[in-house]
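Work package 3, deliverable 3.1, input record:
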Amino acid sequence: MTWNEMQPLLTQGCVDTLYMVLWSSLWSVVGGLPLGVLLVLTDQGGLLRNAPINRVLAAVVNIGRSLPFIVLLVALIPFTRLLVGTSIGPTAMIVPLVVGAVPFFARLVEMAVREVDHGLVEAVQAMGGGVPTVVLKALLPQALPSLVGGLTTTVIVLTGYSAMAGAVGGGGLGSIAVTYGYQRFETTFMLLTVAVLIVFVTVVQLLGDGVVRLLARRDRAVT
Amino acid sequence: MPGAVRLRPVLDSDGKPVITTTDLSKVYRTKDRDITALDGVNLHVAQGEMYGVIGQSGAGKSSLIRCVNLLETPTSGSVTVDGRELTALARRGSRGRPKRPTPQLRAARSSIGMVFQHFNLLSSRTVRGNVELPLEILGLTRRERSRKALELLDLVGLADKAGVHPARLSGGQKQRVGIARALAGEPKVLLSDEATSALDPETTRSVLRLLRDLNQQLDLTVLLITHEMDVVKSVCDSAALMRDGRVVESGTVPELLATPGSELARELFPLGGEVGGPERTAVDITFHGDTAAEPVVSRLSRAYDLDVSILGAAMDTAAGKQVGRMRIELPGRYEDNVVPIGYLREQGLQIEVLPATEPAAAPAVSAAAPATGLAPAAGASEPAPEVAK
């Protein structure tokens, strides 16, 4: 394969991967953030203590976390078809990606929120704040550095998942690596896609670390 | 003198209480047993008072203050703050669920300020942002919030730190921010949960002075809990002693002084001084503010031609009135001193004659006598002539 042959494939692969990762990250936050917060609130000693709901949520998260992604990918095909009309292509892949990442991100959110000092919750309550105020003004802002750290990890995991999704017709870098690099023995092309993935993951990690560092600066006595 | 005691004129203890707890009980149920944190606590805090609740850790002080704004729901009994019965505003939780605060309770809470031992400031917000938080809950506009927050920070002397994050402040400054935040809802009542316990003595004094100033300027009623007698000693008008979830003693400082055998009075005005010997009579005098100490002692000396030694004293003077206790020693046995002691009683003073046969009757606290700004009129360092021989 010449560079001229590889270049459009790579470009398309990058666009598809970015598309899948960005959208699935977004939806994972939309789903995982409330789920993680609810896990803390409904737990023993939480503000909305509710053992049955907590047990159901925890079970959902645990099941979601323990299923291998490749199984989820295949098992969800009918559901994906119902939702998007097709089970092939980057848009269709967003469904299993989100289903796989929501429980993962929810656990990270839970851990981040749990670390917030209970005294702050008490302070907001003493001011007359209700549960939404506690969550929006104390828990989430205080947990923000850990939440960003968790999001970084989630985006990277989603990148890996999206490559896997490529194997079942999802498109993106994973897909072209399998079709061209693996099945047609184009080693150079394979290495190229791997290199692009490494660069992508590194950039995400550096960005995430940078934001975390920026946010953590306020917690230190000396900047 | 920094942090000097300024006792206010005796408060009208019949004044309408701002905080009242009636038969307040709190039982924590664990799997194996029930732990009683509060056991029928009746507390009456009058308008404009600084009320100190003292006790060792585990005595139930923390539960008590948390029950006042219902951060903890009492198991039984009622709490009334500023005429509103808060216990009636809590919504009953069903089947083991926590009792969710009603909007009325939340509104009531926003007019009760609270400061915490560990400040509980949001590190994610600037100092000003922290003070604005309760104002956001109250629904003020951005402009009003900003104006009010700066005003409050000015009040606690931190106007120049508005844009700084709490991590860059010292402990005392953090607590000042905590106080500014607690005042945001223009409360009539301020609850202080060991607010100075994480601070060094110097900072403690300045924070207490600030609380005292606010108490006087804003006619703010302050309920503070502490395990340090010095805190009560330096700022409180009234005090209560807690032990095992019960209030053992309570009252205004003069009331406590007037109570024979009051533990709090003894702790607040500790007396030292070794009694000279069997041929001497030691007398503890309690001054309630109606009689001045020094003229009494010198008059006693002149009238009966006695050499009066002052063994120890813990006195405080406010507006010309002297409150406190003094231990004096008269030559001769008790039998020889019946008349002078009778004279002291006639002055309306509370007199306690120490048993003469026990020279070691002086409490062990002698050296620790007045630890705060209490100025000892005389001390054990003044040797009685007979002892010096």
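Residues 76 and 82 of chain A are 10 Å apart (CA to CA).
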